[in-house]
């Protein structure tokens, strides 16, 4: 039976995010010294904060390992961070072992094939505008914006709107 994204979003208590292609534009940048650089969109960061302030936790599961990501996650107050895990379904099991949440209460936002096993298990599978076509076919909801370009913010507002919490989340930001 097909999933109604708005209905599924009403029960979400944890949004899990991939990094490269979701929180970033998916491109890898290296300095002349061999340092890896990543660019994160400020609107995505505020979207994460809006979710957290409304009682929805945010976590990260990524196949790569990056000190930059650890720093950004700490800045945003994201405590559930699993790095260096190609098998994201197994990482999801690891996360489930440390929570009372059910799969139906979890959303996962990914953009490419390694994300599909985890996306197929959760209550709400989200993706970005510039994802792989296979992921787009299997996601329950797709952002209009690309990875690293505000797609996470768009997903955050979608979840908050479905839960009737968007107005409360935006309170204090209207002039």
Could you explain how this protein is built, in words?
The termini are far apart. This protein has a 6-stranded parallel beta sheet, with helices on both faces. A two-stranded antiparallel sheet has the order 2-3. Helices cover 36% and strands 15% of the residues. β4 (57-61), α3 and β5 (80-82) form a beta-alpha-beta unit. The chain has 8 helices and 8 strands; from the N terminus they run αβββαβαβαβαβαβαα. The chain has helices spanning 5-9, 42-53, 67-76, 88-96, 116-119, 133-138, 151-162, 166-170, and strands at residues 14-17, 29-30, 36-37, 57-61, 80-82, 106-110, 124-127, 141-142. By secondary structure, the chain is an alpha/beta fold. It has one domain (5-169): Rossmann fold (3-Layer(aba) Sandwich). The model has no long low-confidence stretch (mean pLDDT 95).
Low-confidence stretches: none
Q: Helical stretch count?
A: 8
In CATH, the homologous superfamily goes by the name HAD superfamily/HAD-like
Note the gap between the termini: 44 Å
Overall structural class, as computed from helix and strand content, comes to: alpha/beta
- CATH class equals Alpha Beta
Order of helices and strands: HEEEHEHEHEHEHEHH
Q: Averaged pLDDT, please?
A: 95
What is the total tally of β strands? 8
The CATH architecture is 3-Layer(aba) Sandwich
Which range best describes the helical content: under 10%, 10-25%, 25-40%, 40-55%, 55-70% or over 70%? 25-40%
Number of structural domains: 1
The fraction of residues assigned to DSSP E strands is: 15-25%
Biggest sheet strand line-up? 5-4-1-6-7-8
Instruction: Specify the overall morphology.
Output: globular
Radius of gyration: 15 Å
Largest sheet: 6 strands, parallel
CATH-assigned fold name: Rossmann fold
């Amino acid at each position: 039976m097909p999933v109604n994204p708005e209905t599924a979003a009403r029960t979400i208590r944890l949004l899990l995010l991939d990094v490269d292609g979701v929180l970033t534009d998916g491109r890898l940048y290296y300095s002349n010294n061999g340092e890896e650089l990543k660019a994160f969109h400020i609107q995505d960061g505020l979207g994460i904060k809006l979710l957290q302030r409304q009682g929805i936790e945010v976590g990260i599961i990524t196949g790569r390992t990056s000190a930059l990501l650890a720093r950004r996650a700490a800045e945003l107050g994201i405590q559930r961070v699993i790095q260096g895990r190609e098998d994201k379904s197994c990482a999801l099991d690891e996360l489930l072992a440390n929570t009372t949440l059910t799969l139906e209460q979890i959303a996962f936002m990914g953009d490419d094939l390694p994300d599909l096993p985890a996306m197929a298990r959760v209550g709400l599978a989200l993706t970005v505008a510039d994802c792989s076509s296979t992921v787009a076919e299997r996601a329950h909801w797709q952002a209009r914006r690309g990875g690293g370009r505000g797609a996470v913010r768009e997903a955050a507002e979608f979840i908050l709107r479905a839960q009737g919490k968007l107005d409360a989340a935006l309170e204090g930001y209207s002039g």
